[in-house]
Structure formats: structure tokens, C-alpha cells
Amino acid sequence: MTHLTIEPSILYVGTPVALLSTVNEDGTVNLAPMSSAWALGDVVVLGVGMTGQTAINLRSRPDVVINFPSPSQWEAVERIAGLTGRDPVPEHKQARFRFEREKFAAAGLTPVASKLVAPPRVAECPIQFEATVTQAELDAKGNFLIAQAEVLRVHADETVVVPGTSHVDPAAWSPLIYNFRHYFGLAEELGESFRTETPRKRA
Ligand SMILES: Cc1cc2nc3c(=O)[nH]c(=O)nc-3n(C[C@H](O)[C@H](O)[C@H](O)COP(=O)(O)O)c2cc1C
């Protein structure tokens, strides 16, 4: 390999897309795409821009649903990519974003009631985590809310679950990947970890 020194403006090397549903101050619902979401045991750490409506909501109303769309749903995600639930739109976003309160309708997605938290789930997303923020702080530069959300309930469509178990079938499930601001699905499986819970071959 010949490595170049580059100065990319973004460092999004490819992470799953989540749609976060949260509750607005007036009781309506916000929905926003986020790719800064990763799990530590039963906690999902979220990185949420401070000027967005999602950060405002999470600081006052900690309930959240972390919905994971599949690759085929990338256009629904992109339909709300240029929207914010914040009114007025923050100044730095005004050139490229517009305010929209009805994000579910704008995306063409369907809200369905959660079991344990206030915001609804996205019916079309095969995997949904009901969660509540237990800790939140600003990042060192003050631009992002780093929120730790404890997952209270996991919903998985039966097509991605190994029958009769609590295991997601990695061969059946694919996240939607945000790769330097382009959308991808997963390619063919390369192999499995020695810690897999769903081994393909028996020793
Ligand atoms: C695929 C995708 C991933 C994104 N990931 C993040 C993220 O991890 N954190 C973040 O603050 N914004 C992220 N954004 C941008 C927000 O979705 C955007 O700022 C949006 O306006 C926030 O909506 P809200 O103001 O209603 O919360 C992402 C956008 C897209 C399309």
C-alpha cells in the first residue's frame, strides 16, 4: 500500500444508520437519521449534534427508540436527511435544511407504539431498541451530546431471528451502512468470529 496524508472533512468510515425517534416538547414525535450509535453491552452510545431537535429532546425527555433500517430503506432515510425538527432552523443549517415536524410522513414510514417508552417505533425497521438515556454530556468541543441510552427492550422482525432463539441471524439481517455519506448494504459474509452465537458449521 502507498498511504497518502489526507485531510478529509468527515471521518465516517462506515457505520450502521439508525433512525432515532424522540418526543418533542409539545408531545409530537421527531425522527432523525444518526450513524453515531454503537453498543457497549446493553447501552448504546449516541453522538447527537447539539443544535438539532433530537439533542434538545434527549436532554429533557430521555426516552428514545433506536430503529435500524435495512439497506432497501435508504431512500426513506434520505427523504428526511435534509430536514430538522428544530424551528427555527439553526443558522448554520439554513442553506441546506428545512424545518419539518412530520418526519414520519415525510419519510413515508409508519409509527407504531412502543411497549416501554414514549416515542413510537418505526414499523418498517426490522430491528428496534426501546431505550432511555441514563447519562448525557457534551463532547470536548461542545458540539455533540454524547448520550448513553440503556436498551430496555429489543424488537426484531421474525425474518431476522434464528427460530426459537433470541439470536439475530447475521445471514438474514443486514444494517444500512453510512460510508463517507454514501449508503451501502453488507456484501457476502467473509467468515465468523470464534465467539459466534450462530455458527454455520459444527465442529
Ligand atoms: C445517514 C445519516 C447519518 C447521520 N448521522 C448523524 C449522527 O450520527 N449525529 C448527528 O448529530 N447527526 C447525524 N446526521 C445528521 C442529522 O440527521 C441532521 O442533523 C438532522 O437535521 C437532525 O434532525 P433533528 O434536528 O430533527 O434532530 C446524519 C444524517 C444522515 C442522513
From TrEMBL:
Any one GO MF annotation of this record: oxidoreductase activity, acting on the CH-NH group of donors, NAD or NADP as acceptor
Organism: Kribbella rubisoli
Record-annotated Flavin reductase like domain positions: 14-186
UniProt cofactor(s): FMN
Similarity comment text for this entry: Belongs to the flavoredoxin family.
Record keywords: Flavoprotein
InterPro entries with a match to the protein in the record: Flavin_Rdtase-like_dom (IPR002563), Flavoredoxin (IPR052174), Split_barrel_FMN-bd (IPR012349)
Gene3D superfamilies given in the database record: Electron Transport, Fmn-binding Protein, Chain A (2.30.110.10)
Name assigned to this protein: Flavin reductase (DIM6/NTAB) family NADH-FMN oxidoreductase RutF
